[in-house]
Amino acid sequence: MNFLFIATTAMADEITVMSWGGTYGQSQVEAYHKPFAAQTGIKVVSLDSDNPAIPIKAQVEAGNVTTNVADVEYADAIRLCDEGLLEPIDPSILPPAPDGTPASEDFLPQGLSDCAVGSIVFSTIFAYDKTKFPEAKPQTIADFFDTQKFPGKRGIKKVPKAVLEMALMGDGVPADQVYAVLDTEEGIDRAFAKLESIKKDIVWWETGAQPPQLLADGEVAMTMAYNGRIFGAAVSEGKPFEIVWDGQVYEYNLFVIPKGAEDQDQALEFIKFATDTQRLADQAKWISYGPARKSSAGVVGLYQDGKTEMAPHMPTNAANMQNALGSSYEFWVDHEAELAERFSAWLSLS
Known about the structure:
There is one protein chain. By secondary structure, the protein is of the alpha/beta class. Helix content is 36%, strand content 19%. It contains 13 helices and eleven strands. Helix 1 runs antiparallel to helix 12. The radius of gyration is 20 Å and the shape is globular.
């Protein structure tokens, strides 16, 4: 890749990248931040947020943008771009695949938008503690909602997104019909009824680090979680956790530049660097999130332990996609406010 960027005295000697912290943030530091700094001389300062879209919006609206690059979910990238809160990014500036395929053809669907460049495909799955179920094992999303057959508390993220979809799949709706059902009042009622059926057994979580900790502490027997967090706990820490891929909801994370950010040339160079074929494959060696480029799949290797093949642990692995749902950014852009309001009202009911 011939896009070496040389820092000069007239350019900033550091940029700030806001992301989600934890194992995911560390994977970015190892795959992107350190090698970018080594190649360009530009230090990358990492900031963590429970959801970078929220402080980015606040910074831009306040006219005090202190972040150069942020990592956000797809629906937030589209919404913030539509609201004029992000800088546009021309995909023609991105490096091509090693065989010369333009970036615009190499990224997976939803891997590029007017203001964002994709990095990973992550998934909300459910996982369980194998010691809690020594005989019959949970195998489907329906099992997550079956507290008679599989007793124990359930960890669920305290937001409607992905949760309502998984509730419908747990109630028997095939993945390819979920949004058609959820786009009706009856479908919304059905999703909330499914959640209501286990409400007394729910332990709510709000940040990605919490689900593996809830499992480790024995506070829940199963939990919805980000797949990379469970992989890290199971493989790096040896926890007895098992992912169930049935009913997974997969999404993209993308890099954006807040409107009015300083040092935009350096920010663009970082994004170009971090989203080339090899760098995206390198990140996958640190966490089990699928690269957003097609050309990266073939060069994903072993985990940092030097022995675990990463491909089977990716959300995008064919074996893991049998009943998988791609999150609909169109649906959530249109309905997030009203469903969040209903979700909050439902939570407040005893």
